[in-house]
Amino acid sequence: MKIQKIKVMNFRNYDNLELSFNPCKNIIIGRNGSGKTNIVEAIYVLALTKSFRGTREDVIIKHDKELTRIEGEVKEKRKESFKVILDKNKKTVKKNNTVIKRISDYISNINVILFTSEDLKLIKDTPNTRRKLINVDLSQFSNEYLKYLTLYNKILKQRNMYLKTLYLNGNASKDYLDIITNQLVEYGLKVHKYRKEFINDISLYISDIYKNITGIDGLKLTYKSDYDKSKEDILKSYKRIVNSDMRNGQTSLGIHRDDYDFTLRNVYLKDFGSEGEKKNAIIAFKLSELELFKNKKGVIPILILDDLYSELDKVKINNILEFINDDIQTFITTTEISKLSKRIKEGSKIFKVKNGIVEEVTYEK
After folding, report:
1. Which domains, ranges and CATH numbers included, belong to the chain?
2. pLDDT exceeds 80 at position 102
């Protein structure tokens, strides 16, 4: 999968910008705040309709403008056009100039693996952060997953509201709560199935990749979920905690509490791993995703390496790049091109960003 061209209007610090990319390697250099990350962010938004920076969606619209538009030409088996239009009230997505009504039907057309310096904090961050990563990546594998997750979250919100109603009004019917809970479990089990399969698939690659990087064997990924049992047992668990849930006004059991652990030789990296071990584990995780896309979906995704040189030493960077060949279209952002090896720079298309101005430059040997 290659993105051949992107065109943005009113996106972050760009009024209008159109760029054509190398099918193999693209390097974007510039100082922090210059707008270099905005370019790869636009690619990400084109694929997933939202930013990876965790900001409100309307923040990506240029100041004092009403909307932003991102257009791109992507080639997998054939060339197709995609468009995301975002104003302060709605989002419109198009494929080959045809409006796609549901976002879940649009996502999974363009596959992107993003690796940022923030990802290196994944192991020591919260379960919510780890779930978000799985949700983003699984939604690219299957739009069905995103539909089930959306339905689960909708029912979860309804259940929490009704729990509060029951607590305040003792005469309210618990039959309706049973109906909602049954729906919650139905959708939750579907989400659980996708997540468990995803973690199991990643586990097929992660140990060997970690060993290739470090020479150490034994990295494992373990999925933890309240739904690792039958539907009947899950419903019984909800019955046991219903009074507690009513008092708290929220559902304390479900796939919205899922997590996964990284262990190295049966030791939890979150609690006992060194910084180096944690970073190498995340590198192995991301590279495992790359293998999973290729071998399971039959697609080579676009790879974005955003500002990793600020967090990783050259040895770790080289460990990543050893797994990247010319079949993978790669985007690398950095503040200093001198940090990149000669092998990376040769054959790359290089863009220099300064004060929101982008120009293509020639690599000088």
Report:
1. 1-111+299-365 (3.40.50.300), 126-297 (1.20.1050.90)
2. yes
